[in-house]
């Protein structure tokens, strides 16, 4: 799996792809403890999203994040269509607040 990921990254001619390939090449064959933690969180998030969001792709996870957790995390795709997930850098943005119906803000 790791070698196929680094090979895919090498097939692209951009500097970012080369950096991605180098990143994957440096990783051990087995997942590191931090990777295992990330995998576990992502599997749990996927399971929870499937339980919460309506079936049929009516509401995407990105839409839910933007509506219910505004300013807390950034979930988007880059120019290559890859998903980017990162905390936002705005201080205090979205803490304890979520939009309700008609754009109202409600304390959590």
Protein described:
The protein is built from four helices and four strands, in the order ααααββββ. With 108 residues, the chain is of the alpha+beta class. The protein has a two-stranded antiparallel ribbon. A two-stranded antiparallel ribbon has the order 3-4. β3 and β4 form a beta hairpin. α1 runs antiparallel to α2. The chain is globular. 0% of the residues are buried. The C terminus is likely disordered.
Write the layout of secondary structure elements.
Blueprint lengths: L1 H10 L3 H12 L6 H20 L8 H8 L4 E5 L5 E5 L9 E3 L5 E3 L1
Antiparallel strand pairs: 1-2, 3-4
Helix pairs in contact: 1-2
Name the descriptors:
108 residues; alpha+beta; two-stranded antiparallel sheet; 4 helices
């Amino acid at each position: 799996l790791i070698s196929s990921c680094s090979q895919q990254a090498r097939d692209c001619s951009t500097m970012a792809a080369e950096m991605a390939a180098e990143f994957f090449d440096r990783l051990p064959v087995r997942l590191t403890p931090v990777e295992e933690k990330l995998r576990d969180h992502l599997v749990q998030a996927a399971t929870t999203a499937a339980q919460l969001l309506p079936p049929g792709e009516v509401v995407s996870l990105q839409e839910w994040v933007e509506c219910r957790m505004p300013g807390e995390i950034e979930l988007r795709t880059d120019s290559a269509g890859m998903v980017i997930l990162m905390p936002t850098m705005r201080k205090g943005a979205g803490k304890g607040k979520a939009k309700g119906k008609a754009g109202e803000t409600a304390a959590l």
